[in-house]
Every structure is written in C-alpha cells, then in structure tokens.
C-alpha cells in the first residue's frame, strides 16, 4: 500500500483511450506530494471486470513544474506525465476501466495503487460485403475526420474524392460529435455511394484521436491509406499520382505540395512553401518542425499499422507529424513536388498555411524578455508559483520538451531504425541544449524551425537553472497548501 507520507494526485480527467487492433495508448498527468521523493519507475495495468492488461511500454516524464498542484511542503517540480501503450486485448470492451499502478520510488520502496479511471472506446475495422472485400492489390483506404464541417465545402471535398481517376478506394468518415443536423447532412451526401462509410461518435475526441479512429477502422483489404480533411479539394489524379510513388517503397509515406485557395476557389498561392522550407535536413530537424501536411498524405498500410496507436502526449501533437516521423526514421518519406490538393483557407482551419513566422532575432528577443520577466517575479521576487502560472510558461519550460521526448521514446522502440540515428535522436531530446540543437543536422533555413530551437534551448537552460536554485534553497516555491488525499 502507499506509504503514509507520500501522495499522488492526478490532474483532471484522463482522456478516453481507443482500443484498436494495434493496442491502446493513454496518458495522464499528476503530481507527487512530498518534499523530495520522486517516482523512479512505473508499471501500469488496465483493469475492467475480471480482465487485466499490463502496459508494454511506459514512458515517464518527471520533474515537471506544478504550480496548481504543489502544496506548501511539496517540491515545486514534483509533477509528472506518463504515456503508456497497451497491447491489444479482445476481452476489453467499451466502458470504464481502472488504471492501476505499481510505483517504484527513488528511495527504493514500492507502492501499489489505483491512479484513475478511463473510458475505453473500442474501434474495430469496418466489415465489407463479399464483392467489396474482393479488392485489388492497390485498394486505398481514405481516412477522413469530420467535426461540424461547412456543408458546401464538405460536399465539394466529397465530389473531388468521387472524381478520382484511381477507382479502387473506400472512405471511412469518422465524425467527432457533429451537431445532429450536420451529421444527417453528411449521411445524406454519401448515401448513394457504398464506398463511403460514416462512423458517428457519441463524444468529442479531438482531431488527433479522431484521425486515429478513422485509420483504425479501415478494413484489412486496404493496402494504402490516404488522409483527408473535411473541407479541401483533391485534384482528380491525386491518388493515382501518389500510389505510383508509394508502390515502389516499403513503408512509404508520400506527401505532396498543395495550392492555397479561398473558399470560393480563387488561388491565393500555387504552392504551400511560401514562408516555410520543404527540406528538414535530419530526423532531428523533422522532430523540431513538421513539413508533412496530413491532407496530402498517402501511406502504405504497414506504416500506418506501425504508427498505431498514436502516442499519448501532453500538449498538442499532430497525427501527420507522428506518421512523418515513423516514415522518416525508416527513410521511407517521399515528396511529390506537385500541388495535388487545394488547401482551403478559412477561419476554421486548425493551422494556417500562409503564416509568416518571425525571424530568429525577434524570437530571441521575445524569449529573453520572457526569461527576464520570469526571473524578476519568480526568482528575485520570490513568487515562483505566480511566475510559473504565467500564460505559456509551463508549455515552453516543460510541456513541449516532454512531448517531444515521449515521441522519441515511442519512435525508437519501433522496428526499422538505425541504432546510430536513434542514439543521436535520444541525445538531442534528452536535453535540447544549444550545442546539441545546432549540431543535429537540421535545415536551419526554416524560420519556424529556428524559432522552435531557440525557445527549446533557452527554456531548457532556464529550467535547469531554476531546479538548481530550488535544490540549493535560494528560491522558495511559495505554493499554498492543498487538500491531500491518498492516491
């Protein structure tokens, strides 16, 4: 049982976990309430009814700041995030399960405890009719994610899929809880075409898990997977052009350029690469800044199966970035320098295509101002809790480095990598120090990638200095007491 003077709190509700044929991924964030004790290792189990499944990989990120969780007697950096992957288990069903843990503490003792509950959502491949199952070797499964789409733009996207010159495809539309009238309109727009299949959802998962659900639901007959947004336009030869490239490369992920257009169809730019660089330089460069846009991706099925389940991370991870990293590590990422998709720019886009990123000097000045502000309030002023609660402070000190390290740890246990490249990637992610960043082989002509590196490098220096000052007793955490409950 848990020791009397150590407590763990879990931050908020654990996000739902998708049970796919490749397994399930879940993540949770918490805080260890103790002046000095830390978690040395964790083993997790999913418990549902009489069934228990042990995680096959557990990635622990500890030493995270926790201004909303720390009590007056706690170490200020007692926060942690754990990302786990569970093997597939037919016995687990839709519904609530418990997350049990065996915690090994850094002082050598161990505790068994129940951390939290989690909702499980089972995702099985769709069934096909006998005629549909008799697919050719180049059948493409289209994974489309929708959420309250503009119906006119959605109809145009559906029309562009129908018009593909490569006819052997099936499209799974995973809806993420659209309004009932919009969901009915989606269903009506595809009811005359059996190659479209709509999967409604009773809850909102977010675009990352919704794309995972769409990919996991594709039938086994699909040898390739194409990703689709809900409101763009494919050129008629998109699938045919990309499959010609992907057929020749095992584990291939093929992506293309795209034209930027207004909702009415007027071309804003004939290429996506206006303010970004198409080259990434190294796997470390691809980790820092993605260049693969999901709406242009066509990948071999074995690559998508290897990428599932998508890793659980703190912060915001994109499905296309993760898939690109899996392919990049295998050396199977291929680019078609033609705009095969028309990317519609409107107010609902999750990312903008024509954002002009600030130059390095501006990012450096902005980051140094943030460091100065943090030091003035938290270190000199002794109000560390207030300083850490400033908007985005935790993101660049803790969350973003932890997110990237989790991606690297998950990535480097997959088959198909080169040991030397994996070691270099782990070394980079372990600290994100300025020297390691500068020597990682990234393409530094990309302004966005330079900005990410500056924030990671300086944020890491500040975090290490802060922890050192805390350990030396030069800075007080100044955190209020919280109600303590056994984990």
CATH architecture of the largest domain: Alpha-Beta Complex
What's the CATH topology name of the largest domain? Spore Coat Polysaccharide Biosynthesis Protein SpsA, Chain A
Oligomeric state of shown chains? single chain
Classify the secondary structure makeup into a structural class.
alpha/beta
CATH top level label of the largest domain: Alpha Beta
Shape: globular
Total DSSP E strands: 18
Separate helix tally: 14
Tell me the number of structural domains: 3
Strand content: 25-35%
Keywords: Glycosyltransferase, Transferase
Pfam family, one: Glycos_transf_2
InterPro entries: Glyco_trans_2-like, Glycosyltransf_2, Nucleotide-diphossugar_trans
Protein name: Glycosyltransferase 2-like domain-containing protein
Description:
33% of the residues lie in helices and 25% in strands. The model is unreliable at 479-487 (pLDDT under 50). The chain has 14 helices and 18 strands. The chain has three domains: 7-122, Sandwich (Immunoglobulin-like); 130-344, Spore Coat Polysaccharide Biosynthesis Protein SpsA, Chain A (Alpha-Beta Complex), CATH 3.90.550.10; 360-472, no CATH class.
Key traits:
487 residues; alpha/beta; Immunoglobulin-like; Spore Coat Polysaccharide Biosynthesis Protein SpsA, Chain A; 3 domains; nine-stranded mixed beta sheet; 14 helices; 33% helix; disordered C terminus; transferase; Glycosyltransferase 2-like domain-containing protein; Glyco_trans_2-like; Nucleotide-diphossugar_trans; glycosyltransferase
């Amino acid at each position: 049982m848990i020791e009397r003077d150590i407590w763990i709190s879990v931050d908020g509700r654990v996000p739902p976990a998708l049970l796919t044929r490749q397994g399930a991924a879940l993540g949770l964030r918490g805080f260890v309430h103790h002046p000095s004790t830390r978690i040395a290792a964790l083993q997790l189990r999913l418990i549902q009814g009489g069934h228990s499944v042990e995680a096959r990989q557990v990635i622990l990120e500890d030493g995270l700041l926790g201004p909303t969780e720390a009590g007056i007697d706690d170490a200020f950096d007692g926060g942690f995030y754990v990302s786990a992957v569970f093997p597939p288990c037919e016995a687990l069903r839709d519904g609530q399960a418990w997350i049990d843990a065996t915690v090994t503490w850094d002082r050598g003792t161990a505790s068994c405890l129940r951390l939290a509950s989690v909702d499980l959502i089972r995702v099985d491949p769709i069934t096909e009719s006998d005629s549909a199952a008799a697919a050719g070797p180049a059948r493409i499964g289209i994974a489309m994610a929708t959420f309250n789409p503009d119906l006119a733009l959605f109809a145009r996207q559906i029309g562009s899929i129908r018009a593909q010159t490569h006819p052997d495809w099936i499209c799974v539309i995973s809806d993420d809880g659209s309004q009932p009238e919009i969901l009915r309109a989606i269903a009506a727009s595809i009811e005359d075409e059996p190659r479209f299949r709509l999967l409604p959802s009773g809850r909102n998962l977010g675009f990352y898990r919704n794309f995972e659900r769409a990919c996991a639901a594709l039938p086994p007959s699909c040898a390739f997977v194409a990703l689709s947004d809900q409101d763009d336009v494919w050129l008629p030869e998109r699938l045919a052009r990309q499959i010609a490239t992907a057929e020749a490369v095992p584990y291939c992920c093929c992506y293309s350029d795209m034209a930027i257009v207004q909702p009415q169809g007027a071309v804003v730019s004939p290429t996506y690469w206006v303010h970004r660089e198409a080259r990434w330089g190294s796997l470390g460069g691809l980790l820092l800044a993605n260049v693969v846009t999901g709406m242009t991706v066509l990948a071999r099925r074995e690559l998508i199966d290897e990428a599932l389940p998508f890793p659980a991370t703190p912060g915001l991870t994109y499905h296309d970035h993760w898939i690109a990293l899996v392919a990049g590590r295998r050396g199977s990422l291929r680019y078609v320098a033609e705009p095969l998709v028309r990317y519609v720019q409107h107010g609902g886009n999750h990312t903008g295509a024509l954002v002009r990123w600030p130059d390095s000097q501006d990012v450096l000045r902005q980051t140094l101002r943030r460091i100065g502000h943090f030091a003035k309030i938290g270190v000199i002023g002794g109000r560390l809790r207030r300083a850490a609660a400033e908007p985005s402070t935790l993101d660049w000190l803790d969350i973003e480095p932890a997110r990237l390290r989790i991606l690297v740890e998950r990535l480097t246990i997959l088959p198909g990598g080169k040991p030397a490249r994996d070691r270099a990637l782990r070394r980079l992610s372990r600290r994100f120090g300025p020297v390691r960043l500068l020597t990682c082989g990234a393409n530094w002509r990309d302004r966005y990638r330079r900005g990410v590196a500056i924030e990671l490098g300086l944020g890491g220096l500040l975090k290490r200095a802060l922890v050192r000052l805390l350990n030396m007793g030069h800075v007080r955490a100044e955190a209020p007491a919280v109600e303590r409950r056994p984990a």
